[in-house]
């Protein structure tokens, strides 16, 4: 390889030396699987997450991009990824759809549950989103948190799903003050509120903003406990052809602009979707300085 300039993988430099290392591993170990290669990369290059675990998903993504650009040739995929990159079959559970009306006080004491590790409540959460949210639901991959707000008898009255932030969002990036390099370094500290739901049979004024105040006070600590690193900002996208965004405005989110009609995870500008309003919610003071550090 004669080109001495570092190539880019989604904005991150990939020096020729690293390419040559990967090619050498492949040449010397033709029997290695993709899984074995990604684990070797993590071990040799010290790719770990803040909690000390190997960053195997990031390594898989990196190797796949090298393969797609023709810079290396990976072995054939032998089996599904062991780190849940596939979607789990959704098992639906019965829901109590009897009407819930009145003021907040009529609901009694409300409990907020993060349900990722709770199979019973997670089944309720997934069924709610699958049956009630206009975008439906598929099992989440990557870093995520799932919340249910429930009455004392366990009946849910609201749900929130948080996952990976959009790779690129001009309005958000301008509001933060991000360069391309800043975004590549800091994106893991932004999360997207990919789903918010109050079931159709629940009509309680003020529930959305009251529930968000509870979620926002827990989100940072829960994320750090689960993934070993904090988050600074939450983003969400509101389809204005369907919604006014009233609950976000009432909860002190800031509208910073509009999307450009691309999917949240679309890095190459090939997927057209409805234009949406971009809302952001900082979780700390001084978030801009930390996200640009």
Element string (H = helix, E = strand): EEHHHEEHEEHHEEHEHEEH
By CATH reckoning, the class of the largest domain would read Alpha Beta
Sheet with most strands = 7 strands, mixed
Helical proportion? Answer: 25-40%
What do the pLDDT scores average to? Answer: 86
How large is the count of helical segments? Answer: 9
Characterization of this structure:
With 293 residues, this protein is an alpha+beta fold. The protein has 2 domains: 7-68, no CATH class; 100-291, Aminopeptidase (3-Layer(aba) Sandwich), CATH 3.40.630.30. The chain has 9 helices and 11 strands. The protein has helices spanning 16-28, 34-45, 56-68, 119-132, 170-176, 180-186, 207-227, 246-250, 287-291, and strands at residues 7-9, 12-14, 100-101, 110-114, 145-151, 156-164, 190-197, 202-203, 233-238, 254-258, 277-282. It has a 7-stranded mixed beta sheet, with helices on both faces. Strands 1-2 form a two-stranded antiparallel sheet. A two-stranded parallel ribbon has the order 3-8. Strand 5 and strand 6 form a beta hairpin. It is globular. The model is unreliable at 1-5, 82-86 and 264-271 (pLDDT under 50).
Give a quick summary of the entry:
Helix content is 33%, strand content 19%. The chain contains nine helices and eleven strands. The chain has a seven-stranded mixed β-sheet, with helices on both faces. A two-stranded antiparallel sheet has the order 1-2.
Features:
293 residues; 2 domains; Aminopeptidase; single chain; alpha+beta
């Amino acid at each position: 390889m004669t080109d001495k300039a570092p190539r880019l993988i989604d904005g991150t430099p990939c020096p020729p030396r690293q390419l040559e290392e990967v090619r050498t591993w492949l040449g010397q170990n033709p029997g290695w699987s993709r899984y074995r290669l990604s684990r070797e990369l993590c071990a040799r290059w010290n790719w770990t997450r803040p909690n000390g675990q190997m960053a195997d998903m990031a390594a898989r993504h990196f190797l796949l991009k090298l393969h797609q650009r023709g810079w290396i040739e990976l072995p054939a995929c032998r089996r599904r990824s062991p780190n849940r990159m596939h979607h789990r079959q959704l098992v639906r559970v019965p829901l109590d759809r009897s009407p819930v009306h009145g003021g907040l006080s009529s609901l009694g004491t409300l409990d907020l549950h993060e349900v990722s590790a709770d199979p019973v409540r997670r089944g309720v959460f997934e069924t709610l989103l699958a049956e009630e949210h206009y975008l439906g639901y598929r099992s989440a991959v990557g870093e995520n948190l799932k919340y249910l707000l429930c009455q004392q008898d366990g009946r849910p009255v609201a749900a929130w799903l948080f996952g990976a932030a959009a790779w690129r969002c001009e309005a958000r990036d301008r509001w933060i003050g991000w360069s391309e390099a800043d975004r590549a370094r800091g994106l893991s500290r932004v999360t997207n509120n990919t789903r918010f739901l109050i079931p159709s049979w629940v009509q309680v004024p003020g529930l959305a903003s009251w529930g968000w105040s509870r979620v926002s006070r827990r989100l940072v600590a829960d994320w750090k406990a689960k993934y070993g690193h904090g988050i600074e900002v939450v983003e969400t996208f509101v389809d204005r052809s369907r919604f006014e965004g009233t609950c976000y405005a009432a909860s002190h989110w800031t509208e910073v602009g509009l999307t450009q009609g691309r999917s949240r995870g679309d890095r190459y500008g090939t997927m057209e979707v409805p234009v949406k309003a971009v809302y952001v919610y900082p979780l700390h003071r001084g978030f801009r300085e930390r996200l640009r550090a």
